[in-house]
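Appendix B. Raw example, untouched.
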Amino acid sequence: KAVQEKVDALLPGTVNLIGVGARPETPWVLVASYSDVQPGTVMLFNTETGKLNKVGDFFAQVDPARMAKQELVRYKARDGLDIPAWLTVPKGSTRSKLPLVVLVHGGPYVRGTEWGWNDEVQFLASRGYAVLQPEFRGSMGFGDKHFRAGWKQWGLGMQNDIADGARWAIAQGIADPKRICIAGASYGGYAALMGLVNDPDLYQ
């Protein structure tokens, strides 16, 4: 805990994962640091001197200053269930009437995503798209009630949660209602097809 606090003080604004050595007497720990705009940096921290030494970067060519921020938002599904979602808008955008990609995670009974750098999302944002990643009912990591609410809800409540997220983005003025795409792989691919079946007026 003491080492974590020292590292976090040196590296504010990032998630800093500590890897300790097999021998407790060694002064070195490995630090993997990342954020929503930084793919990741690996460093060695010396617990005796308090110094960090950089080892290398993941995706060293990525410039964090050009990446889009990711934020956790919440909206109400049509039956009142609170739905968390990750929203990324293009860096420097007005957050107004943007083309939107609703990116649906696979599984579906998994944790969809988490705060951190995502190559697919950043690519879309760099091309001017807002990206919404709903943690629809059945997604894990948001409590038992949220998880169980997704049972037997393929194409039903789970699908409505995704569509309600797109409509929330429209109501917030973020998304252009005439330029919304739904995409995903695995269960997300199924949800994309069902989105076109259930809500053909919503998705292009």
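End of appendix B.
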